[in-house]
Recover the amino acids of this structure.
């Protein structure tokens, strides 16, 4: 079996970063997108260019070099500058470049031609971003999306997933497979989405993280709850495990230069639990059940009020 390195976990971690939030805003704002890359990524972005343009009904028009361009232009220009020379005539006579987004794409993070075109486009006033498996020398200061995957095929898959997430967040949901839709369209819908029966929600503090001192200094300072590793492993064998926590709220200040979400992921990785977790969120996830130290199992209001009074909550 090929190594997929828990792509779902990598994907979920990326879309909770501040750089990803900035990229979503820029992608929603821009009308034209230029994917700049080479090699196997060209096949990926050629498909994305057609699909994003089609699905947005031309509200976003996407461009990327084709194989013929690479063959001809590589002969006319050196490796570092060919993408700049491809992009220049397409944008330099525009009155405004404010709504143009240049997406640099490199699986390895070692692509001087992509670095050069992103840097050049940024200097001209275009919106820019860089997507790579490894950090790059981001001298131009664009939102940088680092996938941290180890294989080229994973990088290409992640590019597809992230592109469709951008499409969805900008208001255009990617279509489902038609045959699946046809079978379900006349059936009553018991669950809002399929993940309501595929996911399980797990609170973090005092359920996974012992949190014996409460908030304390804002860090994730304590050891794991007894049995947490075994329980999360067992849950993950059947369900997608979503950790929810107030630490992930956006209004929570940085602690040691990190968001609460980053601190939680760091602690999960340190304790070898990240492999079982798909997402860390401040929202109540869709789920088949919720495991929470503060939860109350509701059956009816009369019993609820009585039980809360007995527990001295009311």
């Amino acid at each position: 079996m090929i190594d997929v390195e828990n792509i779902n976990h990598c994907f979920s971690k990326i879309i909770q970063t501040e750089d990803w939030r900035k990229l979503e805003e820029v992608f929603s704002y821009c009308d034209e997108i230029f994917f700049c890359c080479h090699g196997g990524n060209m096949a990926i972005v050629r498909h994305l260019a057609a699909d994003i343009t089609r699905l947005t009904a031309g509200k976003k028009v996407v461009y990327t070099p084709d194989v013929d361009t690479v063959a001809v232009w590589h002969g006319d220009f050196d490796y570092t500058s060919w993408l700049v020379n491809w992009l220049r005539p397409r944008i330099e006579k525009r009155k405004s470049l404010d709504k143009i987004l240049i997406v640099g794409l490199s699986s390895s993070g070692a692509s001087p031609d992509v670095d050069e075109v992103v840097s050049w486009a940024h200097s001209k006033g275009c919106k820019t971003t860089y997507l790579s498996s490894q950090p790059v020398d981001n001298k131009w200061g664009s939102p940088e999306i680092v996938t941290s995957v180890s294989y080229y095929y994973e990088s290409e898959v992640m590019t597809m997933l992230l592109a469709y997430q951008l499409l969805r967040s900008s208001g255009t949901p990617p279509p489902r497979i038609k045959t699946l839709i046809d079978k379900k369209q006349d059936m009553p819908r018991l669950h809002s989405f399929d993940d309501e029966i595929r996911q399980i929600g797990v609170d973090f503090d005092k359920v996974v993280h012992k949190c014996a001192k409460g908030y304390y200094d804002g860090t994730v300072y304590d050891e794991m709850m007894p049995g947490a590793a075994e329980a999360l492993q067992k849950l993950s064998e059947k369900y997608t495990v979503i950790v929810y926590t107030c630490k992930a709220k956006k209004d929570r200040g940085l602690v040691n230069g990190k968001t609460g979400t980053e601190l939680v992921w760091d602690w999960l990785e340190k304790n070898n639990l990240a492999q079982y977790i798909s997402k860390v969120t401040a929202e109540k996830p869709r789920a088949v059940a919720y495991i929470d130290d503060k939860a109350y199992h509701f059956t009816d209001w009369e019993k609820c009020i009585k039980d809360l009074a007995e527990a001295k909550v009311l």
